[in-house]
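Quick one, probably user error.
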């Protein structure tokens, strides 16, 4: 036996009649003409194959089956109303959840202010941030852990949709008493870096990969390889070497003992992408965050 196809209009009409015990008053309550109201009740009883009301010239009373169905009808309408209300809250960003992945340099740099702005505007939306290296960001995206990612690779990644967010230049970082600190940025060539001890990021970082590609086949005098930019800053400040880092990471190097020089060198650029799964729409909450990130970063680079 197939399940009856009931409508919320039928359920509301049934409950109105159960409360009012009068076709006239119940029809007025749900804003229907009496013939239209009577038709709703009749089709409901036919769909359920059950008589729900005993009618007489003086009164309308629920049958035993009607009393049994009344509690279920109230629950059905309540569940439907809650589902619609939850969806409306989600669409209007009163509730929701956004998970994103971002490069550590972005997650610690300009992203916190954007997330604070988003949270102030939509406090009911839960935010989840994974600060990971670029390849890990894409793995989290492919695995469905996050809805979108801010990564420096992935322009040709199968199954992923990418959009260039910005281009990031590179800067030399050294101590103020270093010989390169006295030179103009336009005078510094990549070969000028070779004689000096160099503090590198790990080979799996997007910064290292971009730098190695630009330097090839030249080799630097590597003295240390570290995982984090804050560690690079500490090592350079201690005089262990120089380094080259993207512009978006320079907040790590704002120290009295250090100087930075923008390197205007061909091929030494890092692109940042907004990446999401191909053919999948973002949730309303995630789309709003994505739009805010794009808007604020474009404003900061104009």
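Nope, works fine. Designed sequence:
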């Amino acid at each position: 036996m197939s399940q009856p196809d009931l409508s919320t209009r039928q359920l509301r009409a049934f409950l109105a009649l159960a409360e009012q015990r009068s076709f006239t008053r119940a029809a007025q309550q749900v804003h229907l003409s009496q013939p239209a109201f009577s038709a709703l009740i009749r089709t409901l009883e036919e769909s359920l194959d059950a008589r729900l009301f005993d009618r007489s010239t003086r009164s309308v009373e629920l049958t035993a089956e009607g009393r049994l169905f009344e509690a279920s009808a109230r629950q059905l309408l309540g569940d439907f109303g809650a589902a619609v209300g939850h969806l409306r809250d989600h669409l209007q960003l009163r509730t929701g959840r956004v998970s994103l992945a971002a490069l550590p340099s972005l997650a610690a740099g300009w992203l916190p202010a954007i997330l604070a702005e988003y949270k102030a505007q939509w406090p009911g939306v839960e935010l989840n941030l994974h600060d990971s290296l670029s390849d890990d960001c894409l793995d989290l995206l492919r695995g469905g852990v996050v809805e979108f990612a801010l990564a420096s690779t992935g322009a040709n990644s199968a199954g992923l949709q990418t959009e260039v967010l910005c281009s990031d230049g590179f800067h030399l970082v050294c101590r103020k008493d270093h010989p390169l600190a006295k030179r103009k940025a336009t005078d510094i060539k990549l070969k000028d870096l070779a004689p000096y001890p160099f503090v590198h990021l790990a080979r799996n970082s997007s910064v290292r990969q971009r730098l190695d590609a630009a330097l090839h086949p030249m080799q630097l005098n590597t003295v240390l390889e570290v995982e984090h930019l804050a560690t690079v800053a500490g090592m350079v400040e201690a005089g262990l070497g120089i380094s080259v880092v993207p512009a978006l990471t320079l907040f790590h190097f704002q120290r009295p003992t250090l100087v930075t020089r923008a390197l205007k060198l061909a091929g030494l650029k890092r692109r940042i992408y907004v990446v999401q799964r191909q053919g999948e729409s973002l949730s309303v909450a995630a789309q709003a965050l994505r739009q805010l990130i794009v808007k604020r970063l474009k404003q900061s680079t104009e």
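The chain has a mean pLDDT of 86.
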